[in-house]
Specification:
The complex is a heterotetramer, with two copies of chain A and two copies of chain B. By secondary structure, chain A is α+β, with helices and mostly antiparallel strands. Chain A is built from nine helices and four strands. The chains are: A alpha+beta, B alpha/beta. The interface between A and C is large, with 61 and 61 residues. Bound molecules: adenosine-5'-triphosphate (ATP) (2 copies) and magnesium ion (2 copies). One adenosine-5'-triphosphate (ATP) sits at the interface of chains B and D.
Chain lengths: ~290, ~230, ~290, ~230
């Protein structure tokens, strides 16, 4: 049994070694296909985390009724804080708000006026999709002033939110497309290697090899091509991440890239590569051998 | 004549895709242990007759039986069961181009399930027997025509099959070497192997005085018992 | 001469027809590589035009000195409008601004107060990169109030601007990467077709064909593979654009996709494909034939 | 003997990559219009000797001259100039696998710059001459061994070259057909073509009583003028 397995494996490895040109072409094709796939996944992750950091910048302002006392206020703040989609709540006392207003319109606006502003909450959202729900829940609280509606930059928020979800969708569908594309590219490459050796398969059969003995080495070879392609893809991604990181430092507003998940990337890309290689060789063995 | 011949062709027709008649109604019986030469002009159908037995070609009419079993019963999937009962030395010496002489012969052993030990035991002997031991590490593209031919014969012999199909095994060999190869086949035959040889090499055939089946345009013209 | 050219072309076409498996693999590989390339280019164009529409949403507000008269105001407005990076300038008379302010703080703020606001311009920018320059130029105008500095959402603008330029950079470098990747993929595919027929090239040489006669059909074949791949890529892009358009209707804030430039896409992708196919076969002919 | 022989080997050595000696000091002169048989065991170097002339192999020592020109002077780039002076029928009948018989022969005409008209004129004649006209539309994989061999010879003849190299041209043909092919070569020879044939086919050679050069392990053993 061990002897059989060794034979099959040695056959596969020998075939790879003796068909260098084809092997290089197959591996680099697999590698590039998986690199694109991995790249789009990383872009997706980055876009997602960046989008999340963006939405943290959006906030709404809710106005309290006159005369709500500080202990009550912190109770309400706690309530709001526990709503889904809310990241933070700040109490903006009317005095502080008036001082800021004075700085904003330093001329005559605030001259000698009594502070006309109400107490307010600044509510920072963690999830823009929940904005409307948060607005309604907050407005319904008895401590809030029903005459003074909640303010937030609805249009801007919507734009950012839709952009974000669109970009995510775009990256997602590009990813799905690439998953398919990578499959076809890998299939093509491996089919070409199998096809270029179809005569050999015939001879092997002629001297008494079973279909299993002929085909399994091809499938191991395809799987190894895919695996090697995954490793290559991993390396390329890592190199790209490095150069991207350097470049990103210029974009101070965007924050940092998450660190490159080398281990996970290798596992996932190698796994996908191996799976694709396996399937590709399996299909390729059925198609041309009948011609 | 025993009840059941080892190999039996019964009114076999082979028509190739483009309408060419490979065989046109051949009926023939071969007993276990026989040594048969097939002769005939080019295109007479000698190779086709042998390829039917190894099922490289399919007959469209009639019956081909080996040891009583109709060959159309072997599907692509279990074809190796059939081919392990025979050694095949094709006319266009098909060797695996990316394997050395040694590996080519070893593959035939390994493919039928023999162990590494057996390979190390048998291969050097067979290479010596067919006189290519000195070229064991060469790839087929590095061999001369005659060397390739002898490797193919070695590969066919390695499993000591009960049936041997050799298609033009001496086309690229000189008279002395042809005779040597033929003697090898005759020895095998003497030990019970059924041997079928397609050949043009009349002088050598005459020396061995075996059964000669003469084909012409897909039909049997003469059948001279040895 | 015509006879020679016909011979060479017939050779190339026959080779394509008689090597269906390899041709299909080469064409679909070229097609997918070019499809990805074309896709990223379209994404780039879309991101760019979307970014442009975004920046149009950003504006600044500049305050005039007290007592500047309407004819003077429109003169200044004209001046500002002619600055690079400015898309539109609106005069916001102090009365209108005060009315809006009243609506915004309906409670006590504006009760019985005299209008404290200055006349102002709303300046809509066309190019966010010019924001600082516009700010400075406007502030330096004698009609503007030096005490009342220009207001604009600097942080937000910076974020959007950097995001946009980052996305553009990302798409651009992905594009460059894909240009390279597509090249390698196409090279691999065509090298495999050439390699699988290296024995034929040897035989052709043996019967007296010149290097030119042997190689040019391969190169025509490679070029045609690339061209066919370009056409395939074009078709795939068009299909994607259609499905994307449907999907985009959900994102009302993002506006419409530009129409699919079928003719241009075919010319560009077909051209790149043909060029790549040509180069790939040219290189491929040099590499394996020496082995 | 004229001052300058048509073909001249001068102390030629060929060593293959793995150290195998293909030729080991061969010196030989062949005059224009000669007909020479090369004989010898397998691996003696007959094919190597012919391949040197078509520059499929390179010599590492000595000189090989055709019509006074040293063959190492031909670079890869202008090799076709050399090959257009000869017709080559290789031992392992190399045909273009994706072209039919007709196209294979036509290619040899087209490759050297002949027009379509000439193709339609010459190809059918040559196919008739080598007796494969009935298989004109078959691909090489659909031919029998002997048919392939005759196509290769047809292809070598089509350009009516001044020099013909035929490596084992009758290995897969029966005696009658071998003689037919040999007679074709002899006819060409009579019209001035220099013909070099590597062969094992002693009976046929004896009939033609031409010059026979006998090789052994890369050396010339005998040179029997016809
Ligand atoms: N795959 C094929 N497709 C079409 N025709 C074929 C095929 N194989 C063989 N033929 C034709 O069938 C006929 C018989 O071929 P076969 O190979 O049996 O001849 P043969 O007797 O072995 O000849 P040779 O002595 O030349 O080897 C020939 O005319 C040949 O051209
Ligand atoms: N490409 C090569 N690489 C290595 N060795 C080679 C190569 N070609 C030929 N040889 C070796 O050189 C020797 C001479 O070969 P050659 O083909 O000239 O023999 P030959 O006389 O034509 O034999 P045959 O009658 O079998 O055709 C042989 O031992 C062969 O194995
Ligand atoms: Mg035959
Ligand atoms: Mg030889």
């Amino acid at each position: 049994m061990v002897d059989r397995i060794a034979f099959i494996f040695v056959e596969a490895l020998q075939a790879m070694r003796r068909n260098v040109t084809m092997s290089i072409a197959a591996i680099s094709t697999c590698g590039l296909a998986l690199f694109l796939l991995g790249g789009i996944s990383l872009v997706y992750v980055a876009l997602d985390s960046w989008g999340q950091s963006l939405s943290g910048k959006f906030e709404m302002r809710a106005y309290l009724k006159d005369g709500v006392k500080p202990p009550e206020i912190s109770k309400v703040a706690g309530e709001i804080r526990s709503m889904p989609g809310v990241k933070a709540v700040f109490w903006i006392p009317r005095d502080k708000a008036w001082e800021r207003e004075k700085v904003k319109y330093p001329k005559e606006v605030s001259q000698g006026l009594e502070n006309p502003l109400p107490d307010a909450f600044k509510i920072v959202l963690s999830d823009l999709n929940q904005a409307d729900a948060v607005e309604q829940s907050v407005q319904r609280l008895p401590q809030m002033d029903p005459q003074n509606p909640i303010q937030y930059l609805k249009a801007e928020q919507e734009l950012v939110e839709q952009s974000r979800s669109f970009l995510r969708w775009l990256a997602g569908s590009l990813g799905a497309l690439l998953l398919l594309t990578a499959g076809v590219l890998i299939y093509n490459a491996i089919r070409m290697t199998v096809f270029s050796r179809r005569k050999e398969a015939r001879i092997m059969r002629l001297v008494g090899a079973s279909l299993f003995t002929v085909r399994v080495p091809y499938m191991i070879e395809g799987t190894l091509h895919g695996l090697a392609g995954g490793a290559l893809a991993c390396f390329l991604l890592w190199a790209c991440q490095l150069s991207l990181q350097n470049r990103l430092e210029a974009f101070t507003a965007l924050g940092q890239l998450p660190p490159f998940p080398a281990g996970a990337a290798f596992l996932v890309l190698g796994g996908i590569g191996a799976l694709y290689g396996f399937l590709a060789s399996w299909i390729a063995l059925w198609v041309p051998m009948r011609s | 004549m025993p009840a059941r011949p080892y190999i039996e062709y019964r009114d076999v027709h082979v028509v190739y895709s483009n309408g060419v008649k490979g065989l046109d109604g051949v009926s023939l019986q071969i007993q276990r242990g026989e040594f048969v030469f097939f002769v005939g002009e080019t295109g007479a159908g000698k190779s086709t007759l042998l390829k039917l037995l190894s099922r490289e070609e399919h007959h469209c009419e009639g019956e081909v039986r080996l040891d009583g079993q109709e060959l159309s019963d072997f599907s692509e999937y279990n074809l190796h069961r059939l081919r392990r009962q025979m050694g095949v030395a094709p006319q266009d010496y098909d060797l695996l181009p990316n394997k050395t002489v040694w590996e080519n012969v070893a593959y035939a052993l390994r493919a039928v399930g023999r162990s590494r030990r057996e390979v190390f035991d048998r291969v050097p002997k067979i290479l010596l027997q067919v006189n290519v031991a000195h070229r064991a590490d060469a790839f087929p593209s590095q061999l001369s025509g005659g060397e390739k031919q002898r490797v193919v014969i070695g590969r066919a012999l390695i499993n000591e099959p009960p049936l041997l199909l050799a298609d033009e095994p001496t086309g690229n060999l000189d008279a002395a070497q042809s005779e040597e190869i033929m003697r090898l086949l005759a020895d095998l035959n003497a030990r019970g192997t059924t041997v079928l040889v397609a050949s043009h090499d009349l002088p050598t055939m005459e020396k061995f005085s075996k059964r000669i089946v003469c084909l012409e345009r897909g039909k049997i013209k003469e059948d001279l018992g040895g």
